[in-house]
Amino acid sequence: MTAKVALLIGSLRNGSFSRAVGRAIGELGAPGLELQESAIGDLPLYNPDLDGEAPPASWLRLRGEISKADAVLFVTPEYNRSVPAALKNALDVGSRPYGRSVWDGKPAAVVSISQGLLGGFGANHHLRQSFVFLNMPVLQQPEVYLSNVGTLFDESDKLANDNTRTFLGTFAGAFADWIARTKTVPAKTD
Ligand code: FNR
Predict the structure, then answer these.
(1) ipTM, interface predicted TM-score of the complex
(2) Which top-level group of life is the source organism from (predicted)?
(3) Per the domain annotation, does 100 fall within a domain?
């Protein structure tokens, strides 16, 4: 069975390497995964005061998309050794109103990237910290920290590194298996 996977990109930048990596994973044609990006750049900063009878339309859109998805794939850079604010805001928006979190029980996986050597480790693990509270079962292995990401693509933004393509294929296969095994995690405890 094919799992519908919401793809959340932690960068709002037009030429984002994170988005290029997310697109490349989708184009691998991994059996069992169908990726669809959920936009996060138009979400007003989460404010409970706005979450009454008429919450912002983009909040409702995101919540609907995540609710319908079987799983969520996060592809993100690291900002100041942590999760980019836009992505953290998306987590916050989806987690409320209290008791109606759309993240609850959703299988997840994280890919972090950097143009330097560290592969976005800080963002990757700070995201995982939030997943504990959000009750999201997250794929543990293989971990994906893509360093020197600027060297992996050719001029037409296609993944040009065979080792990375093979590795991402292994990751995508493991994620598909993980979704199949964890999709039935029971709902909310908070
Ligand atoms: C960065 N960058 C960065 N890189 C890193 O490895 N560790 C870090 O802590 C940071 N911090 C940071 C803060 C801010 C505000 C910006 C704008 C950038 C660099 C960043 O990861 C790099 O530019 C990525 O290529 C951005 O991802 P996208 O936009 O290519 O997906």
Answers:
(1) 0.99
(2) Bacteria
(3) yes
Q: Is the pTM of this model over 0.80?
A: yes
Q: What is the domain count for the chain? A: 1
Domain extent for 119: 3-182
User: What residues line ligand 1, using a CB cutoff of 6 Å?
Assistant: 11, 13, 16-18, 77-81, 114-116, 118, 120
Question: The domain that contains 54 carries what CATH number?
Answer: 3.40.50.360
pLDDT-derived band of residue 187, with 50, 70 and 90 as boundaries? low
184: pLDDT confidence band, cut at 50, 70 and 90? low
Peptide linkage before 142 cis (omega within 30 of 0) = yes
Residue 131 included in any domain: yes
User: Quick one: 171 exposed, middle or buried, by C-beta within 10 A (0-12, 13-18, 19+)?
Assistant: buried
Ligand 1 center from residue 143 Cα (angstroms): 19
Of the chain, the percentage scoring pLDDT greater than 90 comes to: 91
What pLDDT is stored for residue 103 in this prediction?
98
Task: Judge whether 144 and 172 are in contact, CB under 8 Å.
Answer: no
Please tell me the distance between residue 171's alpha carbon and the centre of ligand 1 in angstroms. 23
Q: Which of 37, 76, 114 to mutate to test the pocket of ligand 1 (most atoms within 8 A of CB)?
A: 114
